[in-house]
Design brief:
It is built from ten helices and five strands, in the order E-H-H-E-H-H-H-E-E-H-E-H-H-H-H. It has a three-stranded mixed beta sheet. A two-stranded antiparallel sheet has the order 3-5. It comes from Panthera leo.
């Protein structure tokens, strides 16, 4: 029988053990985190105050920004603290809490991206019905479902994480409490946690991606039938930002969670995790603002109004 040990805290090994890189990484990720907060909070405020951004697409985008703020905030502050700390520890309870919010927020974001794809399908393929079918109450219901589902399924997943047993190795080869490295150091309860992690990730990625692919397949068919070149260009331009966000987010998560945890996959996953916990939340406001004419115009009007006020 394994010699199970009561766990009070874990040691987060972080991105690197080389001391000379710690301060450099701290500076880089502090800047990235500040840009993430400013960009996403700015996007939320801009959407709330701009009359031209009151359509369902921007309502969903404001929630994407909201989730990105919390997804990054769940991981980055502790990572920054550990980069300058010698102990680099996280309590057992703190680890479970971080796991819970991370899993919940990832599921919420995955399904918000699916909802946004459905919204684009309704806007392009059913323009005459769009106003009635995507009413305010419908949008609230569509956005509520990812939150309820995400936080519910995360509770189940976190309870399975709580069911892991450890035998003296409390060093997590990561910069936050993630399932794959926790599974790697556990000595009991591993098989059910590993199996459920892969199955739940597979089901949710498959279902949400099927909504995205189906929506865009129908959009492509509708756009190709348009006689106006200008209409086709406008339809594709409204989808480009969303497709970029979907590709970045799903690609990194599938690489991380649809593989069995091994020493190699955990090490690779650590680098990939930097992307979806810090870089993607920073990039999303840029992707949606630089490629979106309405957002750019709203920014210009807000700046002009601020200058007039001065």
């Amino acid at each position: 029988m394994p010699n199970f040990t009561d766990v009070t805290e874990f040691v987060l090994l972080g991105l690197t053990s080389r001391q000379e890189f710690q301060v450099l990484f701290f500076a880089i990720f502090l800047v990235v985190y500040m840009i993430t907060l400013l960009g996403n909070v700015g996007m939320i405020i801009l959407i709330s105050i701009s009359p031209q951004l009151q359509s369902p697409m921007y309502f969903f985008l404001s929630h994407l920004s909201f989730v990105d703020v919390w997804l990054s905030s769940n991981v980055t502050p502790k990572m920054l603290e550990n980069l300058l700390s010698e102990t680099k520890t996280i309590s057992y309870v703190g680890c479970l809490v971080q796991c819970y919010f991370f899993i919940a927020l990832v599921h919420v974001e995955v399904y918000i991206l699916a909802v946004m794809a459905f919204d684009r399908y309704m806007a392009i393929c059913k323009p005459l019905l769009y106003g009635s079918r995507m009413s305010r109450i419908v949008c609230v219901r569509l956005i509520s479902a990812p939150y309820v589902y995400g936080f519910s399924v995360s509770l189940i997943c976190t309870l399975w994480t709580h069911g892991l047993y450890f035998c003296g190795n409390f060093e997590i080869n990561h910069f936050y409490c993630a399932d794959p490295p926790l599974i790697k150091i556990a000595c009991g309860g591993v098989h059910i946690k590993e199996y459920t992690m892969i199955v739940i990730a597979g089901i949710n990625f498959t279902y949400s991606l099927s909504v995205v692919f189906t929506s865009y397949a129908l959009i492509v068919v509708t756009v190709l039938r348009m006689r106006s070149a200008e209409g086709r260009k406008k339809a594709f331009s409204t989808c480009g930002s969303h497709l970029t966000a979907v590709t970045l987010f799903y690609g990194t998560l599938i690489f991380m969670y649809l593989r069995r945890p091994t020493e190699e996959s955990v090490e690779q996953g650590k680098m990939v995790a930097v992307f979806y916990t810090t870089v993607i939340p920073m990039l999303n406001p840029m992707i949606y603002s630089l490629r979106n004419k309405d957002v750019r115009e709203a920014v210009n009007k807000a700046i002009a109004k601020a200058n007039v006020g001065q």
